[in-house]
């Protein structure tokens, strides 16, 4: 786990279980299949970026069984008409984290965190740990300790 993520988790008093994983199995489908995690308990943190300057960003946390409603829900929340998913290089530059390990912890304070309401209704979820070899299992209620977090409807079923 990245040191910055470890500090953020500790400073927020987040109760979680650390799960070590093979970095080659960090992507959601492979992780769930290899570690027996149901897809409706795997939550993906995805960086969304405006297409126009000045760039605006948001991190969206959604279950693996859903997809982000970027063009409607997130666009409305950010007040931006054109959004896209940030590529791997932009994600690394903005969050300091690699795709397959992006977490909701230790994000820049200027980036809002939108947590889909379906995530909040799960008994527990697994989120990235900031790198491709760590995941964190926690109660979704713990996510609301993050100052930039809000629970909203931002996803639709796959």
Q: Which CATH class is shown?
A: Alpha Beta
Helix content: 10-25%
> What is the arithmetic mean of pLDDT?
96
Low-confidence stretches: none
Biggest sheet architecture: 5 strands, mixed
**Topology order in helix (H) and strand (E) letters:** HEHEEEHEHEHEEEE
Strand portion: 25-35%
Task: Summarize the topology.
Blueprint: H1 3-12, E1 16-20, H2 28-35, E2 43-50, E3 57-63, E4 66-68, H3 70-78, E5 83-85, H4 88-95, E6 113-116, H5 117-120, E7 125-128, E8 134-138, E9 149-152, E10 155-157
Parallel strand pairs: 3-6, 6-9
Antiparallel strand pairs: 1-8, 2-3, 2-5, 4-10, 7-8
Quick recap:
This protein has 158 residues and is of the alpha+beta class. The chain has a single domain, classed as YbaK/aminoacyl-tRNA synthetase-associated domain (YbaK protein, Alpha-Beta Complex).
């Amino acid at each position: 786990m990245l040191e910055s993520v470890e500090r953020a988790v500790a400073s927020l008093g987040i109760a979680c279980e650390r799960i070590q994983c093979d970095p080659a199995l960090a992507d959601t489908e492979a992780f769930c299949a290899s570690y027996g995690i149901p897809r409706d308990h795997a939550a993906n943190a995805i960086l969304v970026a405006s297409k126009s300057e000045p760039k605006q960003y948001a991190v969206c946390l959604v279950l693996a069984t859903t997809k982000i409603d970027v063009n409607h829900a997130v666009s409305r929340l950010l007040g931006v008409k054109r959004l896209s998913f940030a590529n791997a290089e932009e994600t690394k530059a903005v969050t300091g984290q690699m795709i397959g390990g992006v977490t909701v912890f230790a994000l820049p304070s200027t980036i809002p965190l939108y947590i889909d309401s379906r995530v909040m209704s799960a008994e527990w979820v697994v989120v990235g740990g900031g790198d491709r070899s760590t995941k964190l299992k926690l109660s979704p209620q713990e996510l609301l300790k993050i100052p930039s977090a809000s629970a909203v409807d931002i996803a639709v079923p796959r």
